[in-house]
Amino acid sequence: MKKLWHFKGGIKLPGFKSLSNTQVKQAPLPEKIILPLRQHIGEAAEPVVAVGDKVYKGQLVAISHSFISAPIHASSSGVVVDINKYSIPHQSGISEMCVVIETDGVDKWDPRIEPNVHPELLSADEMRVRIREAGIVGLGGAVFPSAAKLKPTRTIDTLVINGVECEPYITCDDALMRSHPENIIRGILLLRKLLNPVECIIAVEDNKPEAIALLQETLVKLKTAGIGSVNTIRVVSVPTVFPTGGEKQLIKVLTGKEVPQHGLPYEVGIVCLNVGTTAAVYDALYSGKPLVSRLMTVTGPQIKNPANFEVLIGTPVENILAAAGGVISDKHTLIMGGPMMGMSLLNAKVPVVKASNCILVEASAEELKSSAMPCIRCGTCATVCPMNLLPQQLYWHARAKAFDKLEHYNLSDCIECGCCSVVCPSKIPLVHYFRFAKTEKYEHEIKAKFADQSRIRTQVREARLERIKQEQEARKAKRKADRQKKKAASADADVSKQVSTG
Amino acid sequence: MHDMNTVASSVTSSPFIPSSASVAQIMRTVIYALIPGIVIYIGLFGWGVLINIVIASVSALIFEWLMLIIRDRSIRVFLFDGSAILTAILLALAIPPAVPWWIPVVGSFFAIVVAKHLYGGLGYNTFNPAMAAYAILLISFPRELSLWNVPLDQLNQSLDFIGSLQFSLFHILPSTVQYDSITSATLLDHVRTEVGLGKGIDVISRSPVFGYISGAGYEWVNAGFLLGGLWLIYRKIISWHIPVAMLSGISIISGVSFLIAPNTFTSPLIHLLAGASILGAFFIATDPITASTTPIGKIVYGFGIGLITFSIRAWGGYPDGVAFGVLLMGLTVPLLDYYTAPKVFGARKNK
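Predict the joint structure of the above. Result:
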């Protein structure tokens, strides 16, 4: 047994996992695929196709130029019918540039894609290029471009593969671990080549015993098949406490190390990837196929047939709902992600994106809402905060928009996990305040920066005007002095003239 | 500020799991935890205790209701959140059992109207309402507030329920009972007066008012409150920090004093189990609204109350000092909370 640590705070939540934990079903091919150009953290990709172009499944449709970005690929074959702004999955329902493909029903892969029998023979740099070109981003929800994570600037001790899946209801990672354990482990073996870690840990919450057993069996199987490097991989069962799946919390539980404030895991010698991302790396390097689909849970009390689906990226949510038998009643809330950290969707027309691990169909918003009482400062929120913050203080200062105080109480470290809101006896939507305050604080800082810049500009301008004025005056004075000198000189000359003439 | 509130109530955002805890549930649990102490109190000292609790609670609810109407707040949400009744019960337990009816009524008025609602109502009050009201009563009506009941088993003449009610409402006692014979000074009061007269603890402690350890009758009542307080910690309604820190504060300073001058100062055990130490440590100082919220802040806050409590008992003008300790340390809370914020996850050493 591996020694485990624990992070402060966290809560135990009902799982509701058995609801959706079925065999993975294939979602039907949609007629239309909507591919947002920004499905990742960083810069949006730039389209390389035009309206009217025929595309194959897996063909590049948008290219990324900067390091923190990822390309986008057609998730089925068909014709590009529009490149325009469409509503994307976002809290406020904003629209962003998307490539829309009308599918031809053939779902034909790009013939240029070739499988690779021995990707382990590739050089590390070649592997990184392929991972990057496959458009792989963190599939646990953070959608950070994976290739950028795989080139750390210091030595890595531990590669952590996150199969915790601590959100209630969601089971797609569990389904992946049970259906494709070998892909995950072979993916880890490839990642080892890039990072050279001392050890690799696959962390799984102890509420998924089947996945743990299957991963362990696969390790034994690969070892008997002669792959000795699996010896560095261990499957570790971690206690079911939300949010153990949070990167920082999981690293603490597994290694006792705390990722420094505003820092990244590599600073403590760790790289952390989700199991889905690891399987996507396997797919990209062995089959050469880019990331065009993902596993996704469709679940909740308001959907007829909860299940896990393999879904093409860009499939409209309404198609997935139909595949799961449709909603039970019109009075429901659509949530993308889990009940703790997901976002409510304004409509079902938005597409599934690389970050979409779950569609949760919950009761209506009215039923979920409860009227808030004043804060009685009981401090329960602080005892459950996994970042060791004081939510009750942040709440006061968020309401007062006291930005310096919010900074003092480390608002920016809030991971918006929702623990504080769930335990609040006054039913205050704390996380909502914090999210709002972060945006406000950001805007305030930008404004302050602009104000600073314009103040400096004014100061520089005033200084310049002052300098010009002084220079003018100096010139004036000099001219005056020169004139007087001249005058005096000419007077002298006159005098001498007079004298000489006189 | 206003726009933010509208946003909070109109948009649904994560988490989508409703909170199952409630303010009313917390208040109810605290009230349940007081029951063992209250039952023992009534059993040993008579019906006056219960009469005070009822008068204080009813008047507190009436004042709460009026203030909610005046301040245009939801009566459905706030009237039965349990906070007014809890304040009233704590106030009733702080005053002697044999007082006229208007003492708890005036106390409730001050607690609910002034200390609570004029400061903004539930969650916004700076001072502990029950203790602010008690302090005002003590200063305004020192005579009524200083005569406490003698335990029933030490009495020849006792007061039944009707007698207690008559005393409370009309200030009449049955012809067989004299006021002076049913009331006396408490242990702490007794010690303070006698030490003031130059007597030693060895002589003073022979008085029947001492009971087994820390005051005839009252030691059992406090044992009841201790039981309820420990249950609150077990139920995670309160944390251990404030009670442990406050009782440590009392023990350390009274222990040192006792070691230096054992004939002038009573033992730490008496200080812990007499007066309002236990009730204060578990039920009053732990009032979340007015207490510090950080772990270190709670310890400083509790310890400070302990020190002030002992100082007032030993050198101040009142027999007990818990109320003033709670009120004075309450003033330090904003400062304590600011300077004792726990280190954030992953805090860098040289931030």
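Chain A touches chain B through 71 residues (CB under 8 Å).
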